[in-house]
Amino acid sequence: MKNVILTLTVLLAVMGAGAGLPPVPIPSAQAADSASLPVVTPVISCDALGTVDLAPAVGAAVHGQKAAVLQTPKGKFCKVTGQIAPAISFEVDLPMEHWTQRFLQGGCGGLCGMTRVGVSNAGACAPALNGEFVMAGDDMGHTGSMMGLAQGAFGKDPQKRIDFAYRANHVTVLAAKALTAAFYGQAPKYSYFVGCSDGGREALMEAQRFPDDFDGISAGAPAALFTVQNSFYHTWNVRGNQRADGTSILLQGRVGVLHDAVIRHCDTLSGVKDGILEDPRTCHFDPAWVRCPAGQSDTAHCLTAEETQAAVRLYTGATDASGHPYIIGGPLPGSELQWALPTTAHGESMSNGIAAAAIAYVIAAQVDEKAADLGRFRFDDASFAQMSELAPLYNAENTDLHAFHKRSGRLILWHGLADQSISPLNTIAYYQGVQREMGVEETDSFLKFYLLPGVGHCGNGEGFPQVDFLSPLMAWTEAGLTPAAIRTERTAQGREAMGPPPGSHDRPPAGGQIHMAPMSSQPYARPNATAIASRLVYPYPYIARYDGAGDVNDARNYRPVKSPASLPMAFASHATSLIGPDNQKQYGVRDGRLVVESAK
To answer: Using one digit for the tens of pLDDT, what is the confidence trace for 247-286?
Structure first.
């Protein structure tokens, strides 16, 4: 581990010295040594963990608690499972042979509903690969499929809403730390949370509501504007692409034409014509790029006027009849191959399933199963007010992170620029909100924000989606090594759109799923695949530019420059009002209904 940290120290220092980025000083060997922690062995048996009383630690009854030895290729773990009242299923896996005093909890995706232990974006992190962490996961308080209308049915129970919104992860942390203290005779020295999509929302929720839970947090593509994201955004993805009869206009097989036109007309800004837009905010789509000439019957390489207007609506995002925006923005140019559109005019997209389940059962204060018919949804102020009533419960848009910073917490925030499921503009808006609340300098001292060009939702895409965020987060948290550039990679397996492709093509297939199927549960990271190309990403608002010499596929030949779109963006939308300090509340259940107990 010592050699890994020393190597990372030198790498970060070199990468930090670039145009406009201050050099990162190389710490002494003693500072690097502080991140190499000794192994601590158990002081009680695994069987004994099954009888540890967790109720005092979590503040609720714990049912069905069991402990058993789990045999893995990385050694033995003590696997503890149970259920925190009323219905939060959890799993904690504790190394029996080589625990190096660290704890890690992973977030989930979609509307959750399954218990899984695992970690993403850590495929080059030696301690995670070796199984040196105590690892935990939970089902967010309910059991069910990630997909389909039934995934939202838990919303009928107000306590399950609270558990999904913020309680489940917190009480799981408390249980995991209590088990750790009992098993090893000491608490974890460092605790981490890693999540993407709803897991990114969960990550931010931990920093905002429970700043003492974790020392380091990685939040990817966060669904932080949960109430708007899963109503207005995804419903518009469906309705904005439909005719009056409900059939879809722009289909999966046609977005390649749109993408090709965007890439032909937009500057990559990297100095390399590789089809990857370093900052797609500088690209402003013009319908003339792609619209077929009037009267032309061959539309193989252009879009009809109807298809073109559908594309414009999707880029623009949800508005009322007068064009006033309700969301911060739609998917950015360059993301087209990731758009989850139907394959046929009568088919359904992933956005349909997500919005229907969330609107009918979860977002609105009152369950309304008829609202699953998205044709009933209205893009007006009344709907926005209805969808925003529980924003203080679900949303992770509190920009006041002073408590997390005060306890020396470290946060890495990241988002793929080709993400069509959650617009990266949302995360830019949140980051700017934290800067306004806490000041640019203070924000920079504990939060680093990265945008990944060409990367889709939580990975994949045409860019460089393979990245290890856990290693720099650990080096920053444990050794004070501030991350500057982070290496991202492309692999032979990493260019697919989300989910199973509709067919085999020479290019990445269009219109994948929004959420990948979850990987099997295991208490250690999966190693990175072999990289075929690499690129650096720098803290926002810097982008990577080729220095003009050497292999364009080698990250070492890129330097940081400020993006032409580096000035703070002005986001004029209804959703912007939901971003700010102290906008969360604590909820309880009284007489079977949600009630506000206190402001957060």
So the answer is: 999 999 999 999 999 999 999 999 999 999 999 999 999 9
Q: Mean pLDDT over residues 302-327, rounded?
A: 97
Cα distance between residue 589 and residue 496, in whole Å: 44
**pLDDT tens per residue across span 387-430:** 999 999 999 999 999 999 999 999 999 999 999 999 999 999 99
Query: Do 176 and 92 form a contact (C-beta atoms < 8 A)?
Result: yes
d(CA 461, CA 333): 13
**For the chain, what is the total number of helices (H) and then of strands (E)?**
19, 16
Query: What gap in Å lies between CA 152 and CA 469, rounded to an integer?
Result: 31
In sequence order, what E strands does 418-524 have?
447-452, 466-467, 486-491
Instruction: Locate 34 and state its tokens.
Output: 């502080």
Q: Residue 3 — pLDDT band, cuts 50, 70, 90? A: very low
Alpha carbon distance, N-terminus to C-terminus of the chain: 39
Query: How many angstroms separate the most distant Cα atoms in the chain?
Result: 80
Handedness of CA 159, 162, 163, 167 (dihedral sign): negative
The answer to whether residues 85 and 91 touch, using CB atoms and an 8 Å cutoff, is: no
Count other Cβ atoms within 10 Å, centred on residue 315. Answer: 19
Confidence of residue 147 (pLDDT cuts 50, 70, 90): low
- Per-residue CA distances from 431 to 73, 103, 213, 435 (Å): 40, 27, 21, 6
Cα–Cα distance for residue pair 228/118, rounded to 1 Å: 28
Residue 381 CA to residue 274 CA, distance in Å, equals: 42
pLDDT (0 to 100) of residue 144: 82
Query: Has residue 142 got a pLDDT over 60?
Result: yes
The model's confidence at residue 20, banded by pLDDT at 50, 70 and 90, is very low
Give the number of other Cβ atoms within 10 Å of residue 66's Cβ.
Answer: 11
Sign of the Cα pseudo-torsion (15, 18, 22, 27, in order): positive
Contact 164, 51 (CB under 8 A): no
Give the integer Cα–Cα distance in Å for 167 and 184. 26
